[in-house]
Design a protein that fits this description.
CATH architecture: 3-Layer(aba) Sandwich
Helix content: 25-40%
Number of strands: 10
Largest sheet: 6 strands, mixed
Strand order of the largest sheet: 1-2-3-6-7-9
CATH class: Alpha Beta
Shape: globular
Distance between the termini: 29 Å
CATH superfamily: Alpha/Beta hydrolase fold, catalytic domain
Amino acid sequence: MSYTPEACYAEISEYCTKKEQPSDACLSGYEAALDGAGVIEPEDCAASHVGLALATAIYTADDAQMEADIVADVPSFVLAATYSGGRVGGRAARGTTDDGACHVVFKGTDSTADVVADLESVYLEACTTEDGEPMGDCGDGFISQYGALRDDGVVDELRAAVDAGDCPGGIYVYGHSLGGAEASLLGAELSIAPPGPAVHVYTYGEPRTFSVDAAAVYTTTVDKVRWTRWGDPVVAVPYESLGFGHYGEAGSSTGAGPAASS
């Protein structure tokens, strides 16, 4: 059984209506088409719902309230840790669910430091993994904030959780807007040094994160659903003319035209 993009979109819209959060904070209006096939597997639609809950709740600064907001939609979720990028901004959280999955979510733009990271990302720079392995070129501000979160332990502690046997159900990575860029960076890093369990990335309204060449590589190596919405300006920046590209396939929620795809 598969969902059409419209059916998955309808379920997500219903979720947003129930949450009474029709704004971008609830990420309503997104729809994806995987590899142009026009279908979404049930597990991807279900994971996208979990991602919505986490990507919405991560904007809540209080950890206890954030966990309560997630548990309201994902009852078995247990918060393991949160991470801060300090002066360069950014926030991430890690947790588990009773199906043995580990989840990591990155916050989008909601502070001056985040805006700075967005603006600095019009420049490409050579990006590396925590161990110094090349990742290709990516946005300067994106890797700066992601690097600060990495320094705070988000990657090391995820790998430690895997080593402890806490993630037999796989690793799921999510992010909205700027957080989507950071989720894509983590997905790329884990594809270069695989942790063991399968890694799945779900982003919502993500800007272009990598160079065209790097994006082409990760499209083939990272399992990713990139949700987008026709008319959302964030997905169209940084511009292709600056050398940026998307990885992961996505379609328009309105059918008004193609989503930014490169």
